[in-house]
């Protein structure tokens, strides 16, 4: 028997300790199981086809790319932006971790030449995508999911790797400055099937993590409470992460509007270019 192969009973973590550690690990990886049909119901009022088209029109304006240019939408979710970008004449790849959302995306239609979907982790994009895309888009607060901040930096580096020289990254999500300026601790709304969604939010200023606890009542089926967490960033810190990966921020906007980012903007849209 090799030295060190045996451990005393006292040196092993107890079942309680292991269970606690496993629970923390599972909690930290909330994103791996959160994006299901329940997610689509929870945020149903936000998913508006008219607004999706307005956002894609704004993307096309900002990118200024010719028809046929290659765009990566990551994470692509249920394909609401990827589908419209392909419809506009671009060659689009969508990547997402959620099988449920990818199934919804593929149900909208695919095309081997125009629109393709891949399941994967945005911290490790396919090697064959190196230097492939004219643009990468990261939309709808799809960033800051991971427990370690280093993983967020890794995601930005992967976006940069996938871009051609001169390619552009469009990043859209919450602005820490604006969210804190008008912090909403509680909110609620009703979905089309009569489900009342209630959210309670808390923020840890040290980690920068926003925690959202959701409960459901009154719908046709019983739904358990859910919780997700997002690390919020300032435009300053995001631009530093992008700079570290060879991306230079050229524009900072107040969400999807054609106006400069403000201190009170709850959402921001950053446009960066690969040097």
Helices, strands, pairings?
Layout: H1 15-28, H2 31-34, H3 37-42, H4 49-63, E1 70-73, H5 82-87, E2 91-96, H6 99-107, E3 115-119, E4 133-138, H7 149-162, E5 163-174, H8 176-181, E6 186-190, E7 196-204, E8 209-217, E9 226-231, H9 235-244, E10 247-254, E11 267-274
Parallel strand pairs: 1-2, 1-4, 2-3, 4-5
Antiparallel strand pairs: 5-11, 6-7, 7-8, 8-9, 10-11
Please supply descriptive tags for the structure shown above.
275 residues; Rossmann fold; seven-stranded mixed β-sheet; four-stranded antiparallel β-sheet; 11 strands; 28% strand; disordered N terminus
Mean pLDDT: 91
Total number of helices: 9
**C-alpha-based Rg, rounded:** 20 Å
**SSE string:** HHHHEHEHEEHEHEEEEHEE
The CATH topology label of the domain at 40-178 and 230-274 is Rossmann fold
Spatial separation of the terminal alpha carbons: 55 Å
What is the strand content?
Answer: 25-35%
Structural summary, described in words:
There is one protein chain. The protein is an alpha/beta fold. The protein has a domain at 40-178 and 230-274: Rossmann fold. 31% of the residues lie in helices and 28% in strands. The protein is built from 9 helices and 11 strands. The protein has helices at residues 15-28, 31-34, 37-42, 49-63, 82-87, 99-107, 149-162, 176-181, 235-244; strands spanning 70-73, 91-96, 115-119, 133-138, 163-174, 186-190, 196-204, 209-217, 226-231, 247-254, 267-274. A 7-stranded mixed beta sheet has the order 3-2-1-4-5-11-10, sandwiched between helices. The radius of gyration is 20 Å and the shape is globular. The termini are far apart. Mean pLDDT is 91; it is low at 1-26.
